[in-house]
Specification:
It comes from Bifidobacterium eulemuris. InterPro entries: RNaseH-like_sf, RNaseH_sf. By secondary structure, this protein is an alpha/beta fold. It contains 16 helices and seven strands. The protein has two domains: 155 residues, no CATH class; 226 residues, Ribonuclease H-like superfamily/Ribonuclease H (Nucleotidyltransferase, domain 5). The strands form two sheets. It has a five-stranded mixed sheet with strand order 5-4-3-6-7, sandwiched between helices. Strands 1-2 form a two-stranded antiparallel ribbon. It is globular and about 70 Å long.
């Protein structure tokens, strides 16, 4: 008789294999990766998403296997997979003919890539233990990457560990450096150049079409609109402004997640907290309130339907550890690699339950693109629901940036201090003497309390959603527009 674990493993294996059935459709809408290279979809088809796309943990732990060669191979696979993943969201959202119905293939690739990344971390650990290299983490533009340095002393078993008899590494350290920052920085420069080219073309077209509306010297005769970027007192518009709430926003769900890193194709979701709050109407009389905040000084107030969900990591991820996340959140992933904690990306019921809540009203997050990107690659059905217009996202970060006069620019914060902690303190939802807890439920709570207080002030002052440039309806970002 099959055990519960066996049934779960079989279900995971089945959806990973079934995801490959979509490759022919993806080949039509995503012929090139994010770096402009043709995607070899036959290579993608050959990947063992179930057993692993890396060299394997047995090879990692085998001292007879050359650690340099193993790391070089895993880095090469990860670079190819992540370049494809970086393009899939755009390809999926711009597939207006709906040739691709499901986002399960990118989720499957991300699932395999997370385990590959665990393998890479263990190879880095092995190299340090074997005296092959030292690891130093450096910020290089858009990413912090591990930089391998030559060890102070060579181990006596260097030949077995991957060093040739003449004292030279069989694969030099320069060949096995993490290229993530280099790739992301180059990608950003290409996007910047493309944006400048588009804007230049659009400006040229505007001048050609509206030349009669310009005054001598080329300046448009119409005065600047009050409150726009031309006004010295106004804050410049930002791409995040589309996430601002509208004047009719009411019932929302606040959500915050804690993860093992910032890249949804590499990191695991380990903590999800959410609760509901009405921004205008009274709290429902039959609403349940569960005061389960870690901090006893948190007052539930108007919040209801609170929930905290804890998840695990793979044994390999637990083995590597994560001191940064432990110090930030108090969650030690070394204790999350057992059967006590199920992995979110292997738990379809947890994904289904979260998706149901994310689609029944607008959801709110601080720096919401972070949550959105993780949901895209972790929650079955989320990408499809988002594309269909069934997900509306509101972000309190642009509320802080655009509507909070306390968010003043300074040398360290050129756009103002818009962290959740700073915003919550300015809005009175977090004691100035306290720090943000960095746990899902607690952070979701102070965010919603801050949002409700902020909106009340803005309405009273006739600003924000009730100002000249305010939006009707619930606001937020959605594909199409939905009435709640």
């Amino acid at each position: 008789m099959q055990t519960a674990d066996g049934r779960r493993n079989q279900a995971v294996s089945e959806w990973l294999e079934q995801a490959k059935a979509d490759i022919d459709q993806w080949a039509l809408v995503c012929p090139k990766d994010a770096d402009g290279r043709p995607v070899d979809w036959q290579w993608v088809r050959s990947l063992d998403l179930v057993g692993g796309i890396g060299v394997g943990l047995d090879a990692v732990d085998n001292p007879q296997q050359n650690a340099h060669a193993l790391l070089k191979r895993d880095y090469a696979v990860r670079d190819r997979v992540e370049a494809i993943l970086a393009q899939t969201s755009t390809s999926f959202m711009t597939d207006f003919d709906r040739l691709v119905a499901s986002y399960r293939l990118p989720r499957a690739l991300a699932y395999a890539n997370r385990r590959l990344n665990d393998e890479i971390d263990l190879l880095l650990d092995r190299g340090v233990a074997d005296g092959l290299w030292q690891v130093r983490y450096e910020r290089q533009g858009r990413a912090t990457v591990p930089v391998l340095k030559a060890p102070a002393e060579r181990p006596s078993n260097a030949a077995d560990a991957g060093e040739s008899s003449d004292g030279e590494d069989s694969v030099g350290l320069e060949e096995i450096q993490d290229r993530t920052a280099q790739i992301l920085n180059a990608r950003a420069e290409r996007r910047k150049a493309q944006r400048i080219q588009r804007e230049s073309g659009a400006a040229g077209m505007t001048r050609a079409n509206l030349s009669g509306a310009a005054s001598p010297g080329g300046a448009f005769a119409s005065p600047p609109v009050p409150g726009n970027a031309a006004s010295p007192a106004a804050k410049s518009s930002d791409w995040r402004d589309v996430y601002l709430p509208g004047r009719d926003v009411d019932t929302v769900m606040g959500v915050d997640i804690e993860t093992t890193g910032t890249d949804p194709a590499r990191a695991y979701i380990i903590d999800v907290g959410f609760e509901f709050m009405n921004m205008a109407s009274p709290r429902p009389a039959d609403a349940t309130t569960a005061h389960i905040y870690e901090q006893p000084y948190y007052d539930a107030g108007d919040a209801y339907g609170q929930a905290r969900l804890s998840f695990g990591v793979t044994k390999a991820n637990a083995r590597h550890g994560n001191a940064l996340i432990r110090d930030l959140t108090g969650i030690d992933v070394r204790e999350r690699g057992t059967g006590e904690y199920r992995l979110f990306d292997e738990w379809p019921e947890a994904q289904t339950g979260l998706l149901a809540r994310l689609t029944q009203q607008p959801y709110v997050a601080h720096n919401a693109t972070f949550e959105h990107n993780f949901f895209m690659l972790n929650v079955a059905g989320y990408a499809e629901a988002y594309r269909a217009g069934r997900v509306t996202i509101i972000d309190t970060l642009p509320m802080s940036r655009q509507w909070d006069p306390g968010s003043t620019p300074d040398e360290n914060h050129p756009y103002g201090d818009n962290t959740l902690e700073a915003y919550a303190k300015r809005q009175g939802s977090l004691d100035p003497a306290r720090a943000e807890r960095h746990l899902g439920l607690e952070d979701a709570h102070i965010m919603l309390v801050a949002m409700k207080r902020h909106l009340a002030d803005l309405k009273r002052e006739g600003k924000g959603p009730w100002g000249a440039g305010g939006r009707p309806g619930v606001g937020g970002k959605a594909c199409g527009r939905r009435r709640w």
